[in-house]
Amino acid sequence: xxxxxxxxxxxxxxxxxxxxxxxxxxxxxxxxxxxxxxxxxxxxxxxxxxxxxxxxxxxxxxxxxxxxxxxxxxxxxxxxxxxxxxxxxxxxxxxxxxxxxxxxxxxxxxxxxxxxxxxxxxxxxxxxxxxxxxxxxxxxxxxxxxxxxxxxxxxxxxxxxxxxxxxxxxxxxxxxxxxxxxxxxxxxxxxxxxxxxxxxxxxxxxxxxxxxxxxxxxxxxxxxxxxxxxxxxxxxxxxxxxxxxxxxxxxxxxxxxxxxxxxxxxxxxxxxxxxxxxxxxxxxxxxxxxxxxxxxxxxxxxxxxxxxxxxxxxxxxxxxxxxxxxxxxxxxxxxxxxxxxxxxxxxxxxxxxxxxxxxxxxxxxxxxxxxxxxxxxxxxxxxxxxxxxxxxxxxxxxxxxxxxxxxxxxxxxxxxxxxxxxxxxxxxxxxxxxxxxxxxxxxxxxxxxxxxxxxxxxxxxxxxxxxxxxxxxxxxxxxxxxxxxxxxxxxxxxxxxxxxxxxxxxxxxxxxxxxxxxxxxxxxxxxxxxxxxxxxxxxxxxxxxxxxxxxxxxxxxxxxxxxxxxxxxxxxxxxxxxxxxxxxxxxxxxxxxxxxxxxxxxxxxxxxxxxxxxxxxxxxxxxxxxxxxxxxxxxxxxxxxxxxxxxxxxxx
Length: 652
Fold this sequence. Notes:
Protein name: Alpha-galactosidase
GO molecular function: alpha-galactosidase activity
Organism: Actinoplanes hulinensis
EC number: 3.2.1.22
Largest sheet: 10 strands, antiparallel
Number of helices: 14
Distance between the termini: 35 Å
Radius of gyration: 26 Å
Number of strands: 38
Oligomer: single chain
Keywords: Glycosidase, Hydrolase
């Protein structure tokens, strides 16, 4: 598969109110202005940035496409003509793909509690062969994937891969935006195409007037090429690491204990927290985060949040007593915040001006008992800066879990030409606010959470250090989420919950611990109520993670059983680095006792295989076939849920 494929797909497509598509369709392909764009020059800044300039002489619109690092793309549209133009959609980029027949599309769906459900299907299932050549025209259909509102990964992934089954070449992409986006693929008369955009008029109520001399820059997107699915994902993985803001967390990857999941569930008190803090420290945790509820005097805090002052009734000796206990164990103290919302019953709802909230038609937007701050407004930013700075200075907070549990929809029409335009400017202001926090507090660790993984995009993750992958409370259903996570999130950022409980069997404790260990180990559970043997099993898992985490930030993912299915009886994820592969295997209800895994990246090499975790439970037998690159695992377990972390090393 060649990225141009010999196709005449324009590099940039532009829809305006006065100049739509050159061929009627709902596509972002063959727009009138896109057809008229002509090459106007290029330049190379060092070895990292290529600038390609295009111009449409009729409309006066000019496009500058900036390709950074050979992967990330932004496009700036400038009105060089004498008349104003109303933009209705601009692609970040569009590329031709060549023949469609041999292409498979890998795409991801998700929802709350069921994130990261990926499938691989022939593109022909979405783009049927219509024999366009006999008609002599481009097609009108397309396979368009869109996300609306601010849950950028709430239903579909901004990431996808197209794999050529014949040549093995694969192209992967991601739209890097914390708001609405669209990607689409389909067939033109001269082959397939791919178009990547941020918000558009047709999907997101976005438009942008562009007066003479004015410019608009698209949201960024990235495209990476590799050999097969694993090669393309490896290339995108390397690119994601290049996007990350420098931060000391990248080298440390501390284990986080959070008191929420299946534990205190938003009802923390001093009496409940102190024994849990002691148990978490004994297990090897290095950060202790007090989750939701610390700011309210009862359990009905949902629509009263916004001031973020510690509760007096929950902490009779003050929150500082809890923080001091965390520090006494050498752990970093953390707090949960949902900064972008103000509850309708919160005192802050009347303290801030009406213009500091997202609005439609002069009315503040309300979603699930909350107003949504508009971070374009200085009063909203000042409020959030005061909250963060106060908590850092007063309590020495070194970790914030930044949650986000509502979606305001299309956006705000206050001081904006359209609701989608107001939302885009708010989205960009939100990113500036995050940058400001880390500029002032460069060692502060920020976790990105939105009801789990509902906003796990690389506009956010280029700035934030940790990403919660889900709110899934059933330990049996979590592994497919964790196994799929590296398709869209770096392993060292992907925090999948491990929440061992006293009522679990030893195999079940190991199962949930394994779910968190090939990513950012995110620990919870009633460790304080466990037996000594159970605590030892948890402590062994944490110690194992401590031993492998230095490699995580250099690994690339492989899926020895293919893409994980939600109900698959066996699941497996490998993280490969030089001569070492860390392999997680989960055996679920309905699975047999034997499994063969495809480790073709190790084909032809002698290897050693060792069980890293758990060592104290019954071993799984492993047989390696070097010629085929296959590993056969045999279990002896009667528990329907069991898991192991293996380390496989090539020997020379």
